[in-house]
Amino acid sequence: MNLRHGVLGITTALVLSFLAGCGSKEKKSDEIATPIAPAVEEQTLGDSDSGQALGLQTVTYPYDSYTLEPEAKSRLKANAEILKDKPSLRIQVEGHCDSRGGIQYNIALGEKRANAAKKFLVDLAISADRVTTISYGKERLLDPGMSEEAHAKNRRANFVITQR
Question: For the residues 7-23, what does the mean pLDDT come to?
Fold first, then answer.
C-alpha cells in the first residue's frame, strides 16, 4: 500500500511541476498573440469565394434547397475539369446558408449542399477521397446584408484547396 501511495505522490508532483512550468514562459512585450485556427484552415491554399482557387468556382443554391440548378452544374463541370487536370489537388467543399432560419437547420442544409456538390463531382469521375465536406450553416456569411441579393450570395458551396 505504501508503494502505491508513493508512486501516486510522485506522479502528482511531476504533473503539477509540468503544469507550473508550462505557464512560466515570459512573453516578450513585442510578441503578438495569434489565434489558433482549425487544422484545415492552416492548410488552406486558396478558395473559390476569394477567387484564389486555381479557377474553381463557387456554386449557389435556391432558397431552402440543395438542388443544383443548370448554372451550378455548369460551374461544377468546369471545377471537375480543373480537378482532372491537377490530379494531386484535394479540396474541401464548404456548405453555406443565408442568415435566415435556425442554427441546426442551416447546419443540416449546408451539409446537404456540400454533399450535393461533392456527389456531382464524384459522378464526373473525381475520386471521393480527394473531396471532403463541411457545413458552416449561416456562420460565415459572404455578404452580411439583409437583401435578397445578399441572401442569394450566401446560399453557396465554396471550394477550398487543401492540397496542391
Answer: 45
